[in-house]
Structure formats: C-alpha cells, structure tokens
C-alpha cells in the first residue's frame, strides 16, 4: 500500500465511513453490562452509541444523543446504573427501552415520536456488535464459519480475567497487518518464538469476511507463556490438532481473536486518527479455571510482552512510511494472509473511484 493509506487524514476519514460506520463493529463483551439499568456511553468511529441492559435483561443500543437538543445521555467511556435513561442537560427522562417518559414543563407532552433512535446491534458468542448504517449484511453472514471454528472454545461462556488498553501511535491497518503474519516473529518476539513455531503454519479457508491461520506450539511448550508452562488444562472440546495449536483470527474491521489451548486473548481496535489506534486487549478464561483459582498471570505477562513488541514494530513502521519517499516492497510467502487483506483493501479503495465516491459495499 502507498504511504498515504497509513498517513492521510482523507483516507482515514474515508475508511471511518466505509469500514467503521458501515460494517459490524465489535464493542466488547456483552457481560460488561450485566444488571438491568446498566448503561454505557460508547464510541464508534466518532459516533456516540448508548448500550443499555433493559428491565427484561435484553441489551439495547441507541444513538447516544438526547432527542431534545442532543446532549449525550451517558458520557463517552462512562458506565452508570439507573432505572431510567436520564439526560443531565434539561432532565428529559426515557425508559430503558428508549421510549420518552417525561419532558419537564411540556404541557401537554410533546406529541412527536421522541423515543431514542435505535442502533442496529447483534451479539455473537459473547461479543456485542453494532452496525451504524443499518445496511450491513447479517452478522452471521460476516462471521461465516468462524462461528464453527471458535465453537470448541465456547467463547460465550468465558470470563474476562484481565484487560489492558494501549494507545498505539500507528495506523489501525498496520496493527491488523502485523497480526496477520508471523514472518516478524523470530526477530521481534524472542519469547514467543521459544514456545511457538514461527513457520509451518496454515491459513484457514474461511467463509465469511474473516481471515486466520494457525501455528504449532513447540514440543517443549504447553501453552503461550514465558516458560511454556500452563495450567495443565485444555478446552475440553478441542480436537488433537487444536490442543497443540495457536490460532489467530481477524474479524474485520477490528476484532482479533487469538485462541490457545487454555485461554483466548482478544484485541479490539479503535482507530483514533490516521496515526493513532487504541487497542483494548482482553484475556478470557474458562469459568472452570477461574473457579479453581488459576492465576492468569502466565498468559497476561506473556501477551503483554508480545503486545509491547508488536506496538513498537507498528509505531516504527508508521514513522518509516511517514514523511515521503516510502516505496512498498514485495511480501514474503509467509505473508499470504496479509496479501489477502491488502487485496481486499485495494478492491475497496478502487470501489471508491477517483473522486472518492463510493458505489456501495465491497466484499
Ligand atoms: S438535551 Fe437532553 S434534555 Fe435537553
Ligand atoms: Fe507480533
């Protein structure tokens, strides 16, 4: 890709519109809002989304803007628990299903439909997704057979045991590209390379929009940890290949799911600017392991180390492609998934046309 793909504010704005406001975007785990009345102010490509656990236990999503004059109902990044949705500006009150309950000093009450505007949402294996456009293909179609691939890990039953957010000074696509190849592993990740083979893996033949592949653990390692030791437990439904593999999956545009024999690690990308990406990393363990008192520190320290090495590499690439004069080189055979990602991206860019007009979804 030319440098502008990673540095241009105009390209970034186009991608926000084309990918992040028109595709299913993951907003994290559904159990983050567990109790009725819990409400979170979230952000999707600059648009505010309000997620609410209603009185029946259903998770609802709305535009995070009051129908009076647009004040946010819950501040971005904040979580509250209330029996109603309440606007702090002029105190309009909405029920948890988004319907307007009270507008102070309106007598009679306003007769227009002033319920909160819903945002299309869907859940998949414990994650919440929204589609701001309302026009994306069904989430199940986008997920395709990733659902079956991840089924043995039963992600919907897992518990988040650790989270870590990173502010990465690199374009979001550099984070994705870095994730899609292990060509960099021998030189960038000495710890990872001691426990996992860095070649000889295979890519999945995916249906749906996802991309992924797997690599084998080294014989001396039980899992992805600094010393290769693990909890002496594996997900019960894994086949004999999976118990010796680390599997990497990208669900575009920004959810990375890494599956090891005993835990999952996810990275949720939030593009902030052409050269800035927030990455939210979560470690997911089986309830059985958590209840047995297993310390997730082995996985947390391992992936935190690996994350920092990856972000340093991505930030270095961002600096390298900035400032003019960069010319991209050839991809190595091990970078086949990266090639697929870039080819799809190029197709989407081409669909934008020379004037930046976009004729519609490109898949
Ligand atoms: S903007 Fe919410 S009550 Fe006025
Ligand atoms: Fe890496």
Task: Write up what this structure looks like.
- The protein has 363 residues and is an alpha+beta fold.
- The chain contains ten helices and 17 strands.
- It has helices at 4-7, 9-20, 139-143, 146-150, 172-179, 185-188, 190-195, 287-291, 297-321, 336-352, and strands at residues 25-29, 38-44, 47-53, 59-63, 79-81, 85-86, 93-94, 100-102, 120-124, 127-131, 159-168, 202-203, 211-216, 245-251, 255-259, 264-273, 276-285.
- The strands form four sheets. A seven-stranded antiparallel beta sheet has the order 11-17-16-15-14-13-12. Strands 4-3-2-5 form a four-stranded antiparallel beta sheet, with no helix packed on it.
- Strand 16 and strand 17 (276-285) form a beta hairpin.
- Helix 5 crosses helix 9 (297-321).
- The longest helix has 25 residues, at 297-321.
- Mean pLDDT is 95; it is low at 354-363.
- The chain binds FE2/S2 (inorganic) cluster and fe (ii) ion (FE2).
- The site of fe (ii) ion has 5 residues, from loops.
């Amino acid at each position: 890709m030319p440098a502008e793909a990673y540095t241009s504010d105009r390209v970034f704005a186009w991608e926000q519109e084309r990918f992040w406001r028109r595709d299913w975007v993951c907003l994290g785990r559904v159990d983050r809002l567990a109790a009725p009345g819990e409400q979170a102010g979230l952000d999707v490509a600059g648009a505010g989304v309000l997620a609410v656990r209603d009185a029946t236990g259903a998770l609802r999503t709305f535009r995070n803007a009051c129908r009076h004059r647009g004040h946010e109902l819950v501040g971005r990044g904040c979580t509250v628990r209330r029996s109603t949705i309440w606007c702090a500006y002029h105190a309009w009150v909405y029920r948890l299903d988004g319907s307007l309950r009270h507008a102070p000093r309106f007598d009679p009450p306003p007769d227009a439909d002033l319920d909160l505007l819903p945002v299309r949402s869907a859940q998949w294996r414990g994650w919440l997704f929204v589609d701001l456009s309302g026009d994306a293909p069904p989430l199940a179609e986008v997920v395709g057979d990733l659902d079956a691939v991840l089924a043995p890990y039963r992600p919907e039953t897992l518990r988040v045991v650790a989270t870590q957010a990173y502010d990465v000074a690199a374009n979001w696509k550099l984070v994705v590209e870095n994730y899609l190849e292990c060509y960099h592993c021998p030189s960038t990740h000495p710890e990872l390379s001691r426990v996992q083979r860095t070649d000889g893996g295979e890519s999945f033949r995916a249906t749906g929009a996802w991309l992924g592949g797997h690599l084998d653990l080294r014989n001396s390692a039980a899992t992805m940890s600094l010393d290769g030791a693990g909890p002496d437990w594996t997900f019960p439904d894994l086949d004999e290949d999976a118990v010796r593999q680390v599997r990497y999956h990208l669900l575009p545009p920004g959810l990375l799911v890494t599956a090891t024999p005993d835990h999952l690690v996810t990275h949720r990308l939030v593009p902030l600017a052409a050269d800035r990406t927030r990455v939210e990393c979560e470690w997911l363990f089986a309830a059985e392991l958590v209840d047995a008192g297993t310390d997730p520190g082995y996985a947390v320290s391992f992936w935190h180390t690996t994350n920092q090495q990856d972000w340093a590499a991505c930030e270095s690439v961002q600096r390298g492609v900035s400032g003019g004069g960069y010319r991209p080189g050839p991809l190595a055979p091990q970078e086949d998934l990266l090639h697929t990602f870039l080819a799809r991206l190029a197709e989407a860019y081409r669909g934008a046309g020379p004037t930046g007009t976009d004729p519609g979804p490109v898949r």
